[in-house]
GntR family transcriptional regulator
Amino acid sequence: MGTTQLDTVQEPKYWHLKTVLSDALDSEFAVGEILPNERDLAARFGVARATLRQALEQLELEGRLQRRRGVGTTVAPPRMGVPVADRSGHSWPGAPGDAWQPVDAVAVDGGAVPAAVAEALGTGAGDSLHVVRRTRVDHGQPVAAELLYVPAGSVPGLVADATIGPVARARAVLHELQRLALDGEERAVELGSARAEDAKQLDRLPGAPVLVVTTRYVTGGRTTAVAVSTYRADTCRLTFGDHDTLDVLPG
């Protein structure tokens, strides 16, 4: 394995180094493998360590690398696909095959939910809603967090039981949703910044780039539930149909 000198490159050295490193990740390293230390990498490519750090930071932003405390810098797994196209079949959150894991559920007043969610659901300050918190893990790391808003009127069969735990309460709400006939789903996608709570769940810093997918679940011509799913932009990609994909890169 020889060295690669970048002295004659006209573009910023760190940017060209990022491309060279990316090629090396594809050809020389496996997913989860730990990269050599910064001193060895800087010597291999003939650059200052400050230049190397810039390249590594960019690759981390693009989801090619992960920095793990106590481990080092490792090769990241492939991005997880986030489907946003219309599907021929629809299913409620929590249906068989759902990759999300319930965390907890709480009952809130309608005035405590985001205005856009309240408008979609047609709820007001005097209405009661269940808020189910869920998480999604891929290759052992958290990649998405979700808040599912369900008006109490959408699940009238749900029996309040103060003795059950938070996870069981979340599963009870999801179970009641399965009793309803789902007519369809409608999704909206936008790029955003991680709020403090989302950042904590996703193991990212507040303000980190995220992909926000808002899904409306429709029954009988009205919105029965709304899910706001926040994905790490460095680990996910949008997928359209069965074959077309679009990587979501921060910046």
